Amino acid sequence: MANSNVTHRQVSTLGSAPTKETDDHEPKSSSSKPIFNINISISFSSAFNIPSTLEAAAARILRNLGTFLPFYVIFIGVVLLITLIPQRKFSLFLLLVNTNFTVLYLLLLRAFPSSLLLHKWIDKRLIFAALAVATIVEMIVTDAGLHLFFTLVGTIPVILIHAVLQATEGYSVIEDQVTGANDYIAETV
């Protein structure tokens, strides 16, 4: 590290007398400068706000459905899972089997990123739609159609409200932490 001619001064605590070394480096002017200059600026950036027009709301819904669709599906699945626990054991088992197939398919996509069969020839949307239809049919056949209906009636408005109010694009906590850490390192160096 380069020496930037920085002199360090000991800061005395309350009740202790200043030493001779600190007296030599004190400014001779009559106005005393504060020891610490702390500039606290609080910036509140909310990820949620109300869109100004209906067109902006519709565009935001479409953008957020594309961004958060896996999280919305997990939310619906968890609520459906919770509603099936007390009464519908076989429907719960079939829901977990479909969930396992979905997870295995996603792991297969990750395991073979250069596979032409998995990524080019087979459309992912087709596989996910087939799994969703299979889940709906299984819930209806096992007399859990009402559970599915009430789950969808309860969760879709929550999802739409989130999709309308979520304002930031590409919001990622991990990216914000990395950016914040890089900014902190740049400031301290």
TrEMBL record:
InterPro entries: Prenylated_rab_accept_PRA1 (IPR004895). Residues 1-32 are annotated as: Disordered. Pfam families: PRA1. It comes from the Eukaryota. Residues 1-16 have a biased composition (Polar residues). Its main location: membrane. It is found in: Membrane. Keywords: Membrane, Transmembrane, Transmembrane helix, Transport. It is a multi-pass membrane protein. The chain crosses the membrane at residues 68-86, 92-113, 125-142, 148-165. GO terms for cellular component: endoplasmic reticulum; membrane. One of its GO terms (biological process) is vesicle-mediated transport. May be involved in both secretory and endocytic intracellular trafficking in the endosomal/prevacuolar compartments. Belongs to the PRA1 family. PANTHER family: PRA1 FAMILY PROTEIN. This is PRA1 family protein. It comes from Chenopodium quinoa.
